[in-house]
Amino acid sequence: MSTVESFAPSPMFFTDAAARRVKALISEENNPALKLRVYVTGGGCSGFQYGFDLNDQLAEDDTVIDNADVSLVIDSLSYQYLVGSTVDFEEGLAGARFIIRNPNAQSTCGCGASFSV
């Protein structure tokens, strides 16, 4: 007898590199309850901008994505703009930063911090 498993697509992708960085930040802050919150606000060059915050608060309507024992949290308003996106962390000559690769963005600014839909 065989079993069929179905998997719902992930609303967002939280890379291993981003999870490792969050884990390091949690260790530095000595607060295991911290989570990386990603959100969208109005503003920026292109109309909307991404925001990142470390906090230990969860709202009832938040979406939580786990990777390597750390969590990425998205509020319900931002979720609609971020579904299908990838949250990553990169280090380079320009510095270290969390980045979002958003397939819903029609255009982005040069630094990648703002977008339009």
Task: Looking at this protein, list some descriptive labels.
117 residues; 6-stranded mixed β-sheet; 3-stranded mixed β-sheet; disordered N terminus
Structure overview:
The chain is globular, with a radius of gyration of 15 Å. The strands form two sheets. A six-stranded mixed sheet has the order 4-5-2-3-9-8. Strands 1-6-7 form a three-stranded mixed sheet. β2 (35-42) and β3 (48-55) form a beta hairpin. It has helices at residues 16-29, 76-82, and strands at residues 12-14, 35-42, 48-55, 63-67, 70-74, 85-92, 95-101, 107-108, 114-116. It starts with 11 loop residues before the first strand and ends with a strand. By secondary structure, the protein is of the alpha+beta class.
Helix/sheet category? alpha+beta
Rg, Cα atoms, Å: 15 Å
Helicity level: 10-25%
* Major beta sheet, strand line-up: 4-5-2-3-9-8
General form:
globular
Distance between the termini: 47 Å
List the uncertain runs.
1-8
Question: Mind sketching the topology for me?
Answer:
Blueprint lengths: L11 E3 L1 H14 L5 E8 L5 E8 L7 E5 L2 E5 L1 H7 L2 E8 L2 E7 L5 E2 L5 E3 L1
Quick summary:
By secondary structure, this protein is α+β, with helices and mostly antiparallel strands. 18% of the residues lie in helices and 42% in strands. It has a 6-stranded mixed beta sheet. It has a 3-stranded mixed beta sheet with strand order 1-6-7.
